[in-house]
Structure formats: C-alpha cells, structure tokens
From TrEMBL:
GO terms for biological process: lipid biosynthetic process; membrane lipid metabolic process. GO terms for cellular component: endoplasmic reticulum; membrane. Its main location: membrane. It comes from Oesophagostomum dentatum. It is found in: Endomembrane system. This is Fatty acid hydroxylase domain-containing protein. InterPro entries: Fatty_acid_hydroxylase, Sterol_desaturase/TMEM195. It comes from the Eukaryota. Keywords: Lipid metabolism, Membrane, Oxidoreductase, Transmembrane, Transmembrane helix. It is a multi-pass membrane protein. GO terms for molecular function: glyceryl-ether monooxygenase activity; iron ion binding. Residues 6-76 form the Fatty acid hydroxylase domain.
Length: 79
C-alpha cells in the first residue's frame, strides 16, 4: 500500500489512474481459467497458464511468482 502512495505522489494522477485500471484488468486476466496456452507469448509475459503453476501443488514452484508482467524473473529464479 505504501508503494502505491509513492507512485501516486511521483506519477501524474491521470497516468496513475489509467495504470491502476489496466493492472486490475491484467490481474483479473491472469487468474482466469478460460484462457488457453498462448504459445510464444508464454516466453516473455506472465500468462494465466504460467501463473497457474504458481498456485499449483508442486513444492518447487509454489511462491515463485516474482514477475508481475514479465516471466523472465520467474525463469531466472527457477534455473
């Protein structure tokens, strides 16, 4: 929550509000179970199928969701 306050102070209000709404939509999309595998997009962006691994039962992958948008951070930590 304090990070949001810092962003709200530094970023112009109209940009901050638009970003917050896009982020909300993106987070809703990430948790959707109706989105199929997205092919090459999976190598660059965090997608619903890659995010489901984070919520899975494999102890190796639980709580390994480090990147909010780009999957590179998860790939580096799992290597």
């Amino acid at each position: 929550m304090s990070f949001d306050l810092l962003q709200a102070i530094v970023i112009p209000p109209n940009i901050f509000i638009v970003h917050r709404y896009f982020n909300l939509i993106y987070q809703f999309w990430l948790h959707a179970n109706a989105v199929p595998y997205l092919g090459v997009v999976e190598y660059f962006f965090n997608t619903p199928s890659s995010h489901r691994v984070h919520h899975g039962r494999n102890p190796y992958c639980i709580d390994r969701n480090y990147g909010g948008t780009l999957i590179i951070w998860d790939s580096i930590t799992l290597a």
